Structures are given as structure tokens and as C-alpha cells.
Amino acid sequence: MVRFPLLPVLGVLCALGLSVLPRSAPASGAMPVVPVVQGHYLVGCGGCHGVQGRSGRRVVPDLAGQVGYFLCTPQGRDYLVRLPNVAFANLSSQDLADMVNFVVFTFGRDSVPAGARPYTAVEIARLRADPLRIADLHGYRDRVVRGVIGACPQARELHDYDTAQAGREAGHDAP
């Protein structure tokens, strides 16, 4: 006669029994529900740029209240999508368009220029097919930001990150 230890067998039987029982829904408000587009942002970008688009701007650029300025110029608009971490995101072009629009129009708030149009899946597909492949990404960003500031002078705060980055690269802490 084969004998099974009683506790492990009961544990398995209980687990099997519990897995087939209907689960009750969590009480209303007990679990926050995050919209899919915000979930994409949190997984792909939020770790560095912050849950609300606020980061340690001396290390990673803030998005909140600033990212919309990039739509002041065609080069700035393209830059946002051609960034490698954006262009190579494991999302469909439609999902990426939704996420970029969420970031720009939700976090960007007042920095979005009047009349700015949302990104489309077709535009995203075109831009991500040509991701930035340059070694000096910070230098390129600086040039894009200078163009954005030329078109939207109120965007000067975008340059704060570039100034801090230049200081770190020079071996000293920038203001």
C-alpha cells in the first residue's frame, strides 16, 4: 500500500478546490484601475520620468509642464518619437500614438502649443522606422531644444536639463 503524506495532499486538494471556486470582485474602490495608455507609460517610461512625469530633472528630463513644447517645431515633434526608447517600444504604432498623446497632452498641459495636433498611428510608424542612431544624443537634444526655444521662447526651462547634463559631462555639478 502506497502512503502519501497527509498535509501535502490536503494542500494540493485545497489549492485545486480553491482555484475552481468563483472569486468575488474586489469592493468598489479597493483597487485602483489604471487606463491602458497610462499603464503603457508607467511600464515603459514612468520608472525614469516619474509616475506623474516629474523626474530628477538633473538626471532625466521632466515631462510634466514641458513636453508639449517639443510640438513647437517639426524637428521637436519628430524627436519625441525617434528617441530610441520610444521608437523601439514594444507597442503597436496605434498604442504608441495613444501613449505619446497621453504624455504630451496630459503631462504637457499648458506647454502644448495652440492648435497642436495629436500623433497618428501612421505618423508614429513613419517616425519609429527612422530612430535616432547618434552617439551624442544629448548634443542632438540640445540642438532640438534650441530650435524649440527659438519658436516658443517660453520653453526656456527645457534647457535646464541640458545645462545640468553638460556640467556632469564636464566633470562638475551644474546649477
What does this protein structure show overall?
- With about 180 residues, the chain is mainly α.
- It has a single domain (about 35-170), classed as Cytochrome c-like domain (Cytochrome Bc1 Complex, Chain D, domain 2, Orthogonal Bundle), CATH 1.10.760.
- The protein is about 50% helix and about 0% strand.
- The chain has eight helices and no strands.
- The chain has helices spanning about 5-20, 35-50, 75-80, 85, 95-105, 120-130, 135-150, 160-170.
- The chain is globular, with a radius of gyration of 23 Å.
- It starts with 5 loop residues before the first helix and ends in a 6-residue tail after the last helix.
- Residues about 1-25 have low confidence and may be disordered.
| Category by helix and strand content | mainly alpha
**What is the H/E string?**
HHHHHHHH
Terminal-residue CA separation:
79 Å
Can you say what the CATH homologous superfamily is?
A: Cytochrome c-like domain
CATH architecture: Orthogonal Bundle
**Please, how many helices?**
8
In terms of DSSP E residues, the strand content is under 5%
What is the fold named in CATH at topology level? Answer: Cytochrome Bc1 Complex, Chain D, domain 2
